Structures are given as structure tokens and as C-alpha cells.
């Protein structure tokens, strides 16, 4: 603090105390206003769903995760160059082999191993 601040803080005028009280009242007013605004917004929200509106388990039991291997559709062959905006969406189909790929015996299965990963 500089000497001017020390003089102001030690001064008998009470100006600093008045400003601190005014600032505290402003902060409290802002907090009360924010609380009132939030409670008004909360009242406008729809109520939570009733028990009969909750989703039900299907008659066949819970639905389980379905796993399938997919493979991309073939690129259309053409004599001209195909531009990206001409391709449209690339689809996929169920793969003919649904067995999960496994690592070869004796290979590390990681990238950057420094070699071909052979035996």
C-alpha cells in the first residue's frame, strides 16, 4: 500500500467504511436478485415425469448390445475421376466373416515395435 492509501485507511473521515458498506449491500442485493431469478426460472420448468410416464422394459426383456462386424461398400468404378462431392455417403454392409480378428501367435500386436512383428 502507498502512503496515500495508508492515510485514507487511517483517516477519521470514515469514507472508506462507507464505501465498504455500500459495496457489501450491492453484493448482497445482486445475490438476492440472482436467487429470485433462479427460483422464477425453476417454477417455469415442466414438472418431472410421473411414474406412469417413465419408460418401461420391453415385454421380451431388456435389450442387449448387438455386435456385428461391418465392411465398407465398394467404391463405384468409373472411367472419369470421382470428386469428393460426387461420392455422396459411403455406406457399409455386414461383413461376411463375423469372427473377431485376433493377433497372430508370436506377434506383438503393437505399432512401432521396430520390426515386422514376425516370429
- Listing every helix as H and every strand as E from the N terminus to the C terminus, the arrangement reads HHEHE
Cα shape = elongated
Give the overall average pLDDT.
81
What would you report as the Rg, rounded to the nearest angstrom?
35 Å
Give keywords.
elongated; Secreted protein; transmembrane helix; two-stranded antiparallel sheet; 119 residues; membrane; mainly alpha
Describe the model.
This protein has 119 residues and is mainly alpha-helical. It has a domain of 31 residues. The chain contains 3 helices and 2 strands, in the order ααβαβ. A two-stranded antiparallel sheet has the order 1-2. The model has no long low-confidence stretch (mean pLDDT 81).
List the helices and strands and how they pair.
Blueprint: H1 3-10, H2 15-44, E1 70-72, H3 84-87, E2 92-94
Antiparallel strand pairs: 1-2
What's a quick, concise take on this entry?
The protein has helices at 3-10, 15-44, 84-87; strands at residues 70-72, 92-94. 35% of the residues lie in helices and 5% in strands.
